[in-house]
Amino acid sequence: MAQGCLKCLKYTMCVANFLCFMCGVAVLSFGVYLMVKLNFAALTPTLDRLNIPSMLLISGIIITCVSFLGFLGALKENRCLLMTFFLVLFILMLVELTAACLMLIYEKEIGDIVTKDLKNGLEKARQNDTKISDWDLVQETFKCCGVSNVSDWGNKIPMSCRTEAPVDSRNNTLKPEIKYKEGCLMKLKDWFEENFLTTGIAVIILCIIEVLGMCFAMTLFCHISRSGLGYKL
What we know:
By secondary structure, the chain is mainly alpha-helical. It has helices at residues 2-37, 40-43, 45-50, 52-76, 79-105, 107-127, 132-142, 184-194, 196-227, and strands at residues 167-168, 173-174.
């Protein structure tokens, strides 16, 4: 009975780590997509220095490597791989919890930095037409214009701030164009608030998965140690 339960646990770990591996590939692919499609220097210079696409690439690589460790350690019943998997998961969970606490403590400061950074990015985009296309993507997605409102662009209002102008059927002329009046900063805040609960649930689920992964890894490790299988490859 015990052997059957442990075998079930072993293959459950293999399946779970394979799914995590696929998630890591997805994160890595998203980082590549952002690197190709979006230039953060045109939006926020600070985010450009943080190099978010590269961070996503690194995160994707870490997830794939850790999940591969767990998969191979469970499949081969290798104590060394299982212990490494346990320790790496524990360190990652500590880092995630620390980052979450820091974001909650310095929420206002982070908001001020983002606001200032967006304004600096918009000012640079006004001086360089090639950077406006990156703002177009954000403004078209959130149906907003500028940081606070349309006046941030001055006389150089990009086309992404406008809706399609309908034709007046009576005299076959275009009606005045309607501009998005709300700023992108408020739209972004609303978007984050709407997705805050979803993000919180996702973080909690991630922590639960990591704790379960550590428990499974340690259970298998102890079983292998008692069985005298050592560092079987």
